[in-house]
């Protein structure tokens, strides 16, 4: 039985705790022993993205201290996972602990497919679903194939969803376009961010999606707020919630 430490991002902890609980339930159903280290804090991504490396470094050190004893760390966020794997080198000196946590930290769907070896989940979810492929997971973790690459298309997240009975993945005009959130980008470039988000929502609505899902609560939150203001006929749910509900 794999022993898995949950790393829960700030958005999930503060605003969407149901996503963390769904992640734990799904992993337990797949035979994992799930633990939650209570000393964990933010991964430091907001500070690093804003250019405050000195403020991000203590949080990166804390992450290494908390999680270096675990062989598997699972996070329901592509962007936070990518922060650990791809950007801690610029904040911390090289060490065995740093290298270990980089190797052992996985996004949820990535862990299910690549580590547990699960390609298909037994479950049912009778809805039309649109998949939003967030930028960090797609382009920094390789959860899918970006359209700008001349390579066979594929998506680990879409593969898991497509195997669920009754779940229909809708076809989008632009399947991997950014939603416009981008953390501080949504604050400093609010107008552009909102226009990008509305474009993504319109693509999903036109395709007939009842529910939009993805690996990052931040992107889903951004689009959900825009959709509710315009009363667009679509809901937003993290992929962990859909997979946990489908396999219940």
From TrEMBL:
Highest taxon in the source lineage: Bacteria
Pfam families in UniProt: CCG
Domain Cysteine-rich residues, every copy: 4-84, 129-224
InterPro entries noted in UniProt: Cys_rich_dom
PANTHER family assigned: LACTATE UTILIZATION PROTEIN A, UNCHARACTERIZED PROTEIN YKGE
Official protein name in the record: Fe-S oxidoreductase
Native organism taxonomy: Bacteria, Pseudomonadati, Myxococcota, Myxococcia, Myxococcales
């Amino acid at each position: 039985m794999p022993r898995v430490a949950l790393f829960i991002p700030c958005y999930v902890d503060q605003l969407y705790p149901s996503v963390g609980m769904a992640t734990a339930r799904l992993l337990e159903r797949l035979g994992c022993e799930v633990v939650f280290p209570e000393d964990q804090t933010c991964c430091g991504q907001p500070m690093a993205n804003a250019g405050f490396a000195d403020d991000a470094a203590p949080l990166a050190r804390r992450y290494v201290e908390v999680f270096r004893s675990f062989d598997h760390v699972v996070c329901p966020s592509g962007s936070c996972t990518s922060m650990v794997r791809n950007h801690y080198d610029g904040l911390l000196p090289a060490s065995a602990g740093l290298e270990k946590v980089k190797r052992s930290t996985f996004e949820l769907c990535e862990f299910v497919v690549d580590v547990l070896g699960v390609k298909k989940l037994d479950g049912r979810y009778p809805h039309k679903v649109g998949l939003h492929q967030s930028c960090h997971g797609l382009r920094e973790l390789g959860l899918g194939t970006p359209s700008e690459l001349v390579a066979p298309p594929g998506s680990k997240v879409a593969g898991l969803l497509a195997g669920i009975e009754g779940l229909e993945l809708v076809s989008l005009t632009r399947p991997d376009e950014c939603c416009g959130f981008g953390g501080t980008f949504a604050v400093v470039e609010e107008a552009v961010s909102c226009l990008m988000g509305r474009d993504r929502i319109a693509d999903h609505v036109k395709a007939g999606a009842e529910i939009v899902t993805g690996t990052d609560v931040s992107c889903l939150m951004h689009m959900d707020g825009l959709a509710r203001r315009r009363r667009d006929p679509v809901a937003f749910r993290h992929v962990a919630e859909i997979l946990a509900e489908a396999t219940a």
